[in-house]
Amino acid sequence: MTLVLDDVTVGYPGRPARTVLRDVRLTAHSGQVTALLGPNGAGKSTLLRSVAGLQRVLGGSVFLDGDDVTKLSPAHRARRIAVVLTDRVDGGLLTGGEVAALGRLPHQGFTSRLSADEKHLIAESLDRLGATDLGDVRMHEMSDGQRQRVLIARALVQQPALLVLDEPSAFLDVAARVELLALLDEIATDAGITVLLSTHDVELVLRTSQHVWLAAGDGTVVDGSPAALIESGAITRAFDSRRVRFDPYDGIFRLGEG
Ligand SMILES: Nc1ncnc2c1ncn2[C@@H]1O[C@H](COP(=O)(O)OP(=O)(O)OP(=O)(O)O)[C@@H](O)[C@H]1O
């Protein structure tokens, strides 16, 4: 299962249209986490929403296992692609267990009852996210980080071929961020799915990820291993600012001489 972006241009329609990223040609492989990095405003969310079919691409095609995602019906897309966005969600009076169970909807329709296997899958997914205790807690009574775990559990319950997460670690503490990346890596490998996530945890990703897409901030996206992107200077070019310098030897950012 592979995600292929073929000459994809993303942005916002209008007169004139606002192009954010142009002619992107990239691949993300199944069984692997691909981390999308880039400075603020580089186009990460726009790209992820476009890949997930939540917003129209301005040009090109997105293929998932050979099928053009941009041409799938919303129902078909929901069976293949799970999306976890950063927006604060108001799950209201639903419990964590009920929200996780919603992940089965694309597969069964509203009236069907959950099978024993599906109930097992829901319990297992909450457990993987360390969210078993949240099964009976209402969403509005959870912290942002707890809600985030439940939403990721719901995405696993969906059993997608492609899992897209926009800044999944935004509300998590540092230990939970490291754990989440490791967990997503494990899930990608075990389930053989393609995981694509955006994050500002640049140093963590450079230390732990195998494959990175880098939205460089100039309308282009390059990809490669962390080592290759560091060596080519792409990370430095994307993130260096007047005050901050990337140290390629230690793989960390340092305050520079202004
Ligand atoms: N609805 C919209 N209409 C028009 N332009 C938009 C819209 N949403 C975002 N943009 C613009 O698209 C560009 C990319 O934004 P995007 O949110 O994709 O960046 P990002 O890399 O996810 O940023 P961040 O790291 O700050 O979340 C920005 O210049 C932004 O102003």
UniProtKB/TrEMBL annotation:
Domain ABC transporter: 3-242
InterPro entries: AAA+_ATPase, ABC_transporter-like_ATP-bd, Metal_Ion_Import_ABC, P-loop_NTPase
Highest taxon above the source species: Bacteria
SUPFAM superfamilies, A to Z: P-loop containing nucleoside triphosphate hydrolases
Keyword Nucleotide-binding (UniProt): yes
Keywords annotated in UniProt: ATP-binding, Nucleotide-binding, Transport
Pfam families per record: ABC_tran
CDD domains recorded: ABC_Iron-Siderophores_B12_Hemin
Protein name per its UniProtKB record: ABC transporter ATP-binding protein
Organism whose genome encodes this protein: Rhodococcus parequi
Lineage of producing organism: Bacteria, Bacillati, Actinomycetota, Actinomycetes, Mycobacteriales
